[in-house]
Specification:
Number of domains: 1
Structural class: alpha+beta
Number of strands: 7
Shape: globular
Helix content: 25-40%
Strand order of the largest sheet: 1-2-3-4-7-6-5
Number of helices: 6
Largest sheet: 7 strands, antiparallel
Radius of gyration: 16 Å
Order of helices and strands: HHHHEEEEHEEEH
Length: 203
Amino acid sequence: MTPKTMSAPVGMTMAAQKTLAHPIDIEMFLSKLGAKDRANAEKHLAACDAEGDPRHGLLWRRMACALKTLAPHATKVNGRESVQFYVPDGKYKLQVFALHDARDGKLYLYTGNVLKEACKAGVLVAPKGTAAKGFYTVPKSPDLLQIEELDENTPEPAVFFKHMLGWSRKAIRIILPTTSAESHIAAAEHICVISAAGFATAT
């Protein structure tokens, strides 16, 4: 049975955060891909870099490298839009992250549902009232960060994240505009660190 994401001891969270303090660079990320996956990633980056605003390509590089640092086992690049990240699960592999770029001015980051843990750690402040559902406050930022909860009842989940659902597993989709402030990007990374500590416990 595929293990579900678990709450992690503080020590494991600190270890994951220490790992992300020294992320791999984009050349290392690309070197760890198969030939076809690398070609897809390079074409996607070339398209990003051809845009007028360099922040799109910079954000994609940062998030891809962060996720690969936290989940270095295996990576699959689907065409030029999405990337799946895996950790070992016995003799199999378990998907723990996904990165989707539809070229609509936003990056969509998928990770385990650790919203309660992120709020407890002070990374996020939960919304108050149903009108604000799905929008979280980030310390030192006047803007809200949009995060959607996903589970086995999510209608027609895309192939690049559907294996992160079911078997008691739940996920979240963090929506990062390519113009996101550093506080939002750092919060997204911290959420992934908490999730990484949890799946390390589960596996």
